[in-house]
Amino acid sequence: MEHQMGLDRPLPVQFQDYLAGIMRLNLGTSFNTGQPVVSDLRVRLPATMELALWSTSLRPDRRPVRCLVRPAAGSARDVVVSGVAIFAPASALLVGLIVLFIFYAVLKVSPLLMDV
């Protein structure tokens, strides 16, 4: 296996081969699917970009919240609103993980297996 992956060669040679492969868009073979990584990216990248665009467009902007705090910097209101502004994205991530768990573990619906 080490010889197949090229791990028996010196590290500079491995790195040189890695950079040359990137320049040729040869990212190797996926351990999960056994297919070239580039073909897996072509299949999954559109859904990933759609998810990224939707999550970015639906994310609440924190700037209006931060503008409410500026006049009273250091006050209790500043601490509360700053805490909400900082932890709101984390709560959105938590909700997303819970939804993924419900769909994947409970309902047995996998987005990876639907498009393949």
Task: Describe the protein's architecture and organization.
The two termini are 28 Å apart. The mean pLDDT is 78. The protein is mainly α and 116 residues long. The protein has helices at residues 2-5, 11-23, 37-58, 63-69, 76-106, 111-114. α4 packs antiparallel against α5. The chain is elongated and about 60 Å long. It folds into two domains: 1-58, no CATH class; 60-116, no CATH class.
Number of strands: 0
- How many domains would you count in the coordinates? 2
- Which regions contain 5 or more consecutive residues with pLDDT less than 50? none
Main structural class: mainly alpha
Name the average pLDDT. Answer: 78
What letter string, H or E per element, gives the SSE order?
HHHHHH
Task: State the major sheet.
Answer: none
How many helices does DSSP assign?
A: 6
The helicity comes to: 55-70%
The general outline is: elongated
First-residue to last-residue Cα separation: 28 Å
Beta-strand level of the residues, as a percent range? under 5%
Rg (CA only): 22 Å
